[in-house]
Amino acid sequence: MRRYIPSSTALKCFEASVRHLSFTRAAQELHLTQSAVSRQIRNLEEFLSRDLFIRLNKRLVLTSTGAAYYKEVVPLLDSMETASLRMLHREDEKTTLTISSLPTFASYWLMPKLVAFEKAHPRFQIKMRSLDDAAKIDPENIDIILHYGGDHWPRAVSHHLLSERVTAVCAPSLVSGWDVSSFTAKNVTDFPLLHLSSRINAWPDWMSAQALESSSFSGPSFAHFHMLLEAAKHGMGIAILPTIIADQALQSGELIAPFGAPIATPHEYLLSYPADKADLEQVVTFRDWLLKYVANATEI
Length: 300
Description:
One of its GO terms (biological process) is DNA-templated transcription. The protein has nine helices and ten strands.
């Protein structure tokens, strides 16, 4: 069946000419000559058997027909462009690896390791997503999730990745003037305590592990680990942080941990994937690579 659709070049010339009300400026935008744009418009007008512009000396005026056509054509051109961009960015299901991870875990622990994975397996295209709510996981569109806690992802295969350890940290500025070399765990009670709103037991559990008691755990509370980390770095108080989050700042000297060695928590980080994706090459490759990385604790 014949379709009454003009050429895409004519439509692009028409759209640009309407915006600029100038064949010359439309030609400059489209990298064509002025005569080429004028010819495309004339061909379009002949195709439609309607005048789209009135040429008045050096002025270009859009007719009412041209205005009506423009109003209908522009959304279609936008849709065509969007569809084309989607195809250009379409993922190859055989090489795309979609990973959903806790944002802080991904930023402070996973990202530095992904460089090594990409170098070892350059044909896989990684797509990272933020794991904010395990209940909203879409197994159809996610290959692997990296998550926290003792609860395994339903209908998935899960592997232990890391056991969690936490440490009490603060900025050097917070303890300026104190002899930190003589600090013990008890010294935390001399300073403000910072909290993560989703882990209200962090300080009580840490105190209990240190055989300490406290009558008050008041202090600023933050919704996310990166907020808590920044608050600690800026000297607001002492924070309980997982070592995987605190390590970079401890190594750079932005934070110090003078209140004792890290302690273990009963929690863990897991690597999980849908059972029906257990044989996908990209899933198997990434799973084996990351588990080996953790087991060896060396670069792969």
